[in-house]
Inverse folding.
């Protein structure tokens, strides 16, 4: 097997004290056209910075064609890897030709003169991306597509063995985005240049790449052919939204569309959910319930607890106990009244101690009233009661029909079952509301 | 409508020839003018020879100082990607001012001051630069933190300077203010030669990083990707620019405007390519300052106007016109 073009070996890296990835490992074979996809903040752009040695304090190693990027001289690195950024701007009126010539910076001698070879390379690069006619125009005056073609010509003039595209098409309209990808694809096919493209556009990635790497929170979630990586289930999990994956009827590639079909099922209008939370375990759930238009109550919470602050901020009603005190009988009765009116009771991944374990009894009362209870799995790990009472109560709840969930996405799938099927004519309203 | 411009190399080659001719003409005119009237002084007499030598001396000083300031301006504008960047942006001017004022106000008699002043001014400038770099966090610091710490250090140094001026005795006060206005009064031969050597070396060194400066205008990351050692080049550039500015300041005091506007004008005439821009700007800055000095000497003769006053007053409208006409060939943003 040949030496990989790009290899990440157990790379941990990021900014300051926040690691963007941990133990990331993969390798890209020379001559391939690969894509990196993932939601915002998953570490796509950081990956490119790491690959070109811009990310400080790295554990693990990144190597380009067999050599660690840290040990490469600037000129050597530029011959191995070139980067097409999302957008390139210069305040100065360099002509297209001058900008493309900057790709040869690493090859310039002491006297700064371009050799006949350099000139030929620059000219070829401009012909390849079709910017020859505009070579005397100032770069800042070009349109977005022309600019990006010029930048690709600059990177080509650099003659790297691998090109990284950092969201290179995201500012372009579909026509120009396709044009740029076609140039890159041809380059890969004809000159054998390795391409790694980081992209938000799943469809373009699916169409052009032979292999996709799906990143989420700095971890490699999936790696393989587009059809294997882009599945509805996996995309829902990573992007937290409903999508439809089909085969493109024209060229047979995978096609991903955000799915409005499921959207009405996300609106919880008219459904009352009572939340048992505490210690910040309910913040995200309260926020998302609120966002999806559920009628939400919560309790019993201690005043000043971060969940009770969230509830107050969102205007959610609840039953509150004095700060730092155990739940009293009086508040329990109030909360019970609230929970009895709910259509469902959700138990967040809250740590339970002697002070708040009675909240689980609240859920038990609701269950007796045939109100469905959705319980965050793993109470045993969060049980701080001396007699492990919370664990026992949770087990009883499950016996009596409470359903367990693992992730917030799971929870919302379960809650979705409560939503009555909707009349298609009201779909748009519901879509809007969600 | 977009019309295809002519090949830039041909048109700008003519422009360069034209500029060089104009520059030489201006220098000749400078040599002919002075407080003793326009025309060649009588070379036959010792007085005439002395006058001519004095004029040539001042022309050379103007060339050296102007070249240093405008070259520093080019480098800073490229590195900081900021059109308002000028030689004094990293606190060099106020550091030098403080050093000079300290020398003037504590110096004992004229003889000591003549040697002491340039040295302390230079030392003050370099000290200010080091403080700015330390505050900003080295050359890896972002453009904004560099500019911001430059402004802060300048402000602090300026207030100390103001305090010194406010409490200074009357005779010292005049010297300090005269120095702060900037002038090309003859300095000692030795100092001239040293400064000229430093400035020439600085300009040549700046030319050596010209392609890297080109790439750095695209941003540090892009420059890194095309194979520029960005930290090294940024460090060299900032030091070179400040060194040039400090050399100029120690020779002639605080002369403004040249370092800000000459780079812009030359960029709009010749384009932003630093290989061409650096030597052209250095020459143009030198000629411009020499011409301003000639005016400063002769306009109100026998009184002399501080040259720092004239640079903006005369150069301003002229350069504004050029920028209006050709601005889009230089800085676009």
């Amino acid at each position: 097997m040949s030496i990989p073009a790009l290899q990440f070996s157990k790379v941990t890296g990021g900014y300051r004290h926040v690691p963007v990835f941990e133990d990331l490992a993969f390798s890209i074979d020379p001559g391939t056209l690969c894509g990196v996809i993932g939601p915002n903040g998953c570490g796509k752009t950081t990956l490119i910075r790491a690959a070109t040695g811009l990310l400080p304090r790295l554990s693990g190693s990144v190597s380009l064609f067999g050599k660690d990027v840290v040990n490469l001289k600037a000129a050597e690195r530029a011959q191995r890897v070139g980067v097409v950024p999302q957008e390139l701007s210069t305040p100065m009126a360099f002509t297209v030709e001058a900008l493309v010539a900057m790709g040869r910076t690493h090859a310039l001698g002491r006297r700064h003169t371009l050799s006949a070879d350099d000139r030929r390379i620059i000219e070829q690069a401009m012909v390849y991306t079709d910017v020859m006619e505009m070579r005397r125009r100032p770069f800042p005056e070009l349109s977005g597509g022309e600019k990006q073609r010029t930048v690709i010509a600059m990177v080509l003039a650099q003659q790297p063995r691998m090109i990284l595209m950092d969201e290179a098409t995201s500012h372009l309209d579909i026509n120009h985005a396709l044009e740029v990808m076609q140039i890159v694809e041809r380059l890969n096919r004809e000159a054998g240049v390795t391409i790694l493209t980081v992209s938000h556009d799943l469809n373009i990635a699916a169409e052009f790449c032979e292999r996709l790497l799906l990143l989420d929170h700095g971890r490699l979630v999936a790696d393989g052919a587009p059809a294997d990586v882009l599945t509805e289930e996996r995309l829902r999990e990573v992007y937290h939204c409903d999508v439809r994956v089909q085969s493109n009827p024209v060229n047979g590639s995978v096609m991903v569309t955000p799915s409005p079909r499921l959207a009405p099922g996300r609106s919880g209008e008219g459904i009352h959910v009572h939340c048992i939370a505490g210690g910040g375990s309910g913040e995200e759930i309260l926020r998302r319930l609120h966002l999806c238009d559920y009628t939400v109550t919560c309790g019993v919470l201690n005043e000043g607890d971060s969940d009770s602050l969230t509830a107050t901020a969102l205007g959610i009603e609840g039953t509150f106990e004095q700060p730092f005190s155990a739940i009293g009988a009086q508040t329990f009765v109030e909360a019970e009244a609230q929970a009895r009116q709910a259509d469902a009771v959700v138990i967040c991944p809250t740590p339970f101690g002697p002070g708040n374990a009675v909240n689980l009894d609240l859920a038990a009362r609701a269950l007796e009233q045939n109100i469905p209870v959705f319980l965050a799995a793993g109470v045993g790990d969060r049980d701080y009661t001396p007699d492990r009472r919370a664990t026992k109560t949770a087990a009883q709840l499950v016996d009596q029909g409470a359903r367990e969930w693992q992730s917030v996405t799971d929870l919302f799938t379960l809650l979705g079952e409560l939503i009555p099927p909707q009349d298609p004519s009201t779909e748009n309203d519901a879509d809007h509301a969600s | 409508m977009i019309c295809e411009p002519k090949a830039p190399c041909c048109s700008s080659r003519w422009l360069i020839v034209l500029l060089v001719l104009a520059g030489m003409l201006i220098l000749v005119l400078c040599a002919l003018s002075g407080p003793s009237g326009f025309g060649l002084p009588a070379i036959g007499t010792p007085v005439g020879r002395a006058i001519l030598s004095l004029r040539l001396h001042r022309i050379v000083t103007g060339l050296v100082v102007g070249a240093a300031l405008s070259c520093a301006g080019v480098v800073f504008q490229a590195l900081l990607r900021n059109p308002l960047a000028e030689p004094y942006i990293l606190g060099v001017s106020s550091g030098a001012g403080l050093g000079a004022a300290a020398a003037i106000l504590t110096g004992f008699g004229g003889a000591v001051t003549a040697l002491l002043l340039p040295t302390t001014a230079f030392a003050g400038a370099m000290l200010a630069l080091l403080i700015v770099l330390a505050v900003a966090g080295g050359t890896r610091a972002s453009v904004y933190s560099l500019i911001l710490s430059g402004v802060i250090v300048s402000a602090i140094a300026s207030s100390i300077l103001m305090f010194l001026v406010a409490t200074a005795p009357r005779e010292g006060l005049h010297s300090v203010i005269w120095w702060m206005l900037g002038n090309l009064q003859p300095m000692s031969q030795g100092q001239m030669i040293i400064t000229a050597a430093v400035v020439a070396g600085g300009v040549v060194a700046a030319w050596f990083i010209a392609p890297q400066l080109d790439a750095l205008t695209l941003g540090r990351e892009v420059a890194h990707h095309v194979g520029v050692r960005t930290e090294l080049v940024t460090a060299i550039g900032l030091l070179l620019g400040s060194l040039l500015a400090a050399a100029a300041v120690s020779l002639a005091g605080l002369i403004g405007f040249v370092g800000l506007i000459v780079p812009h004008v030359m960029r709009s005439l010749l384009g932003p390519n630093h290989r061409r821009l650096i030597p052209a700007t250095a020459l143009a800055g030198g000629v411009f300052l020499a011409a301003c000095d000639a005016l400063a000497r002769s306009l109100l003769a026998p009184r002399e106007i501080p040259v720092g006053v004239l640079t903006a007053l005369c150069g301003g409208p002229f350069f504004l016109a050029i920028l209006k006409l050709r601005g889009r060939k230089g800085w676009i943003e």
User: Anything to note?
Assistant: Chain A has two domains: 6-258, 264-416.
